[in-house]
Amino acid sequence: MTGYLEVHFGKPFDLQGLASYCLVHPAHLSGQFKQETGRVLTDYLNSLRIREAKALLWQDGSPMEEITSRQRFGEPAYFARKHGWFTQSQ
């Protein structure tokens, strides 16, 4: 399942859709993921998105607004404050 998430983390996340893909109940999927990885599914997904956001910031210098939009983080200023980064306007 982590392999699937690593490939598809940039797409909208829906536990029900992921559970359907895996042919299991959403509650079972969440519990199984936590048991196998020691992490909550949404925390794991957010860590993938943050890793990608950092790579985009440092590798190609994409604007924060573009990165937060691609990674579905919401407002760039909120994301930057939450993760200790600065927006380009600061």
3D structure, described in words:
The chain has 90 residues and is mostly helical. It has one domain: Orthogonal Bundle (Arc Repressor Mutant, subunit A). The protein has six helices and no strands. It starts with a helix and ends in an 8-residue tail after the last helix. It has helices at residues 2-8, 15-22, 26-37, 41-59, 64-70, 76-82. α2 packs across α3. The chain is elongated. The longest helix has 19 residues, at 41-59.
CATH fold field value: Arc Repressor Mutant, subunit A
Report the span from N to C terminus: 39 Å
Largest sheet: none
What is the typical, i.e. mean, pLDDT? 79
Following the backbone from N to C, one meets helices and strands in this order, namely HHHHHH
Relevant CATH superfamily: Homeodomain-like
Highest-level CATH class: Mainly Alpha
Kindly state the percentage of residues in helix: 55-70%
Structural descriptors:
single chain, 90 residues, mainly alpha, Arc Repressor Mutant, subunit A
